[in-house]
């Protein structure tokens, strides 16, 4: 007769995500996960696989929640440029926030830590970036069709520039103690939409 799990796998995955997000992949040991999740090593392996598998599942979970919200924000009916501007300013505010900036973005952190040598993590990072770039591109195409964005602007190139800006804001914000640095960069980039 099979034993029933004595823990909630969904809650354990969320807890692992939070630990990996705060400490990074390399700095988080299996012993740390056992202690933080409050479940045995064998249960972690049986439910999630090894540490790398668990990390990738946590990265997938992060993408499911953050990417969905972004798509919803950018696909609201009506004028599109205000939503794009709001999104960029929100990223800048989060990057400058004294508490939130220290963790940064889990995807951005993964890109910096694992992206160069971990193809599975790099694929997930790329997918997350596509989930930002595509709705940005769609919003900018809509803005151009509605006369909000000048005809001589390239919505694809602008979406890519904004993606790089958003990721850069997270990186700089994580290490900088000057909140004006990220806010000024965001506002300067937004002038390209005029």
Automatic annotation (TrEMBL):
What is the scientific name of the source organism?
Answer: Streptomyces montanus
What domain of life does the UniProt record list for this protein's source? Answer: Bacteria
Protein name according to UniProt: TetR/AcrR family transcriptional regulator
- A Pfam family cross-referenced in the UniProt record is TetR_C_13
Q: Under the GO molecular function aspect, what terms does this record hold? A: DNA binding
Q: What does the record give as the DNA-binding region?
A: 29-48
Q: Which UniProt keywords apply?
A: DNA-binding, Transcription, Transcription regulation
- HTH tetR-type domain segment(s): 6-66
């Amino acid at each position: 007769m099979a034993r029933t799990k004595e823990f909630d796998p969904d809650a354990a995955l969320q807890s692992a995500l939070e630990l990996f997000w705060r400490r990074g992949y390399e700095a988080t040991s299996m012993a740390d996960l056992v202690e933080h999740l409050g479940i045995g090593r064998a249960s972690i392996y049986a439910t999630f696989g090894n540490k790398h598998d668990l990390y990738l599942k946590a990265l997938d979970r992060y993408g499911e929640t953050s990417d969905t919200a972004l798509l919803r924000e950018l696909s609201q009916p009506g004028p599109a440029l205000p939503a794009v501007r709001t999104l960029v300013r929100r990223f800048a505010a989060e990057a400058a926030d004294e508490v939130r900036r220290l963790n940064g973005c889990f995807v951005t952190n993964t890109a910096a830590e694992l992206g160069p040598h971990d193809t599975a993590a790099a694929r997930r990072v790329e997918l997350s970036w596509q989930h930002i770039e595509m709705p940005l591109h769609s919003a900018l195409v809509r803005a151009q069709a509605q006369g909000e964005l000048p005809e001589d602007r390239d919505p694809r190139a602008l979406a890519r520039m904004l993606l790089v800006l958003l990721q850069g804001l997270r990186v700089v914000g994580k290490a900088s103690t000057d909140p004006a640095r990220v806010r000024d960069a965001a506002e300067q980039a937004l002038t390209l939409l005029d």
